[in-house]
Records
---
Amino acid sequence: MTMPLVVYLLCAATSAAVAFLLLRGYQRTRASLLLWSGLCFVGFFLNALLLLVDYRWYQDLSVWRSVPTVAGLALLIYGLVWRSETR
């Protein structure tokens, strides 16, 4: 295994772990910030998977890689701005 492949795998694993922990925390507490952050990290995870495909099979997926990231960030911004809880 080459060093970039190991780094990309670690990035994907970290994003998946963070997404899992955030969404599990949302299930327990129903705090909306955990939901939106978890969905954002799901987008980061999908980006890392597409980066692995891009690197391993030499496909140019640079445009497609940005779609899950932008979608995840858009969900986070939506949750922070329009769905913020006022207490």
Note: Residues 3-81 form one domain.
---
Amino acid sequence: MRWVLFLSPFICWANAFAGMPVKDINIKARVFRAEVASTRQEQTKGFMFRASISPDAAMLFIYDQDGVYPFWMKNVKFPLDIIWIDAAKKIVYIKEDFAPCSSGDCPVEYPADPARYVLEVMGGTARELGLKPGDRVDFD
């Protein structure tokens, strides 16, 4: 009985992501399975509190209009590469190996140019793939 009570919050938290749509994201012949964060609640939570992600996992943040969308790493447990993408699906800015932060005063990263989408992948992925601004990202 104690295990059920202990695990209940984790099961409920994990199930909160079960309903998120998933898209295949193609970048330089590599395919990522991206959870789609399109609601404010999903975008606020992102990869917070997860112990890890697989190398082919990603999260795609979709916005209704172009903008300068800031990101931070509060309560994220591992470094991420954050990739801002414009409406034409070209990379406009990359923050590599953005370090986790657990304090209330976490650094915030702003893209150099407006974006319509933001993609989070495991830290080191952008360097591994040789990503740079202007590279194309393919998804439906």
Note: The radius of gyration is 15 Å.
---
Amino acid sequence: MATGTGRILGWVAAGWAAVFLAGTSFRVLADCSAFGLPFTDLGSTTFCAQIAEAYYSGLTNGTSATAYSPSANVNREQMAAFVTRTLDQSLLRGNRRSALDQWWTQTPRYDAYGSPGLTTVGLSPEFLKSDGTDIWVANPSNDSVSRVRASDGKKLEDWTGATWAYGVLVAMGRVFVTGYLPPPGRLYMIDPSGTAGPVTTVASNLGDNPYSIAFDGSRLWTANYSGSVSIVTPGATLPWSVTPKPLASTALQGIVFDGANMWVTDANGGTLLELDSDANIVKTVTVGSFPSFPAFDGHNIWVPNRNSNSVTVVRTIDGTVLKTFSTANGNANGLSKPTQAAFDGQRILVTNYDGGLSLFKATDLSVIGNLPTTGVDNPFGVCSDGINFWVSFIGSGNIGRF
């Protein structure tokens, strides 16, 4: 849209585009044609380099093939195009995937025809998390945690003694795993630099049935299906201190931290709850039926709603529901008992317990596509290693790289 979204003010070129080149030295030229620009209406300006950056990065195309219109007004609609293009460029060029030449963003596939393909871990693997190098998988049915190398999918070792291992968190240079059964809940710790063996128990008095776990920078929080959160404060000696916080809710499942507050899903209430640092409920957002394990993308929380076959996107700054993906809204994207969401810096991937994966673009809340998972049963947990997504399959005892 050369005559619309391509229009840009002189102050935008001088200010916004200058941000792109902050700290970079360029020779000031009055003739912008020296930069290979096609525009003939720039006159004598000292901002040729910044305009060139905006043009060559795709931020603006000018108002015609040869006109830049540096003094033309920019309306809010056009400014939105400039800002979102800038955001997309920063995501494309600034993340780990681009540095490793992983440019694709379309629907992924699992590597069924070669390494790493599917990696056999323990029994009924459910949740998993990456530390940037390896994938840590909780296997509740044989009380173990498997370590899988992300680069090639090779299982490296198993850690034992994690009774009914469930939620997984990587923080403080350690791997933490919740023990779901029998009550009360437990918290286990693994030192990745140590020799594989029994896990270390750091707390044995969490709330009953701790499903998931998050970290606020100093304390660990668990969402307990029995209707409470537990706040664990690390200490110099074991066991660590646990502060119980019962909520007027039941069936708490997922928990994520947005940099300021915790958010938990109340499956029976069909709500997403925002908690302050003392675990007081400060906001209640109605989402869908039986919300499960959400993901935070830096701005919004994506909540899979298992029983309503939908995903609700909630803006954290004010709790506004921005969008709901569902059959009723015509954008279900293959959702079928959606269970967990994960974010890779650009995309959101949602597992569907009935089979298949649903992929969305985080920046504009659009559908990318969905992928069948033929030959493997019950996709459940999902995480990103910064390049690829990894999915656990409860019914198959495997995890797969996508």
Note: Helices lie at 10-20, 48-56, 76-94, 96-99.
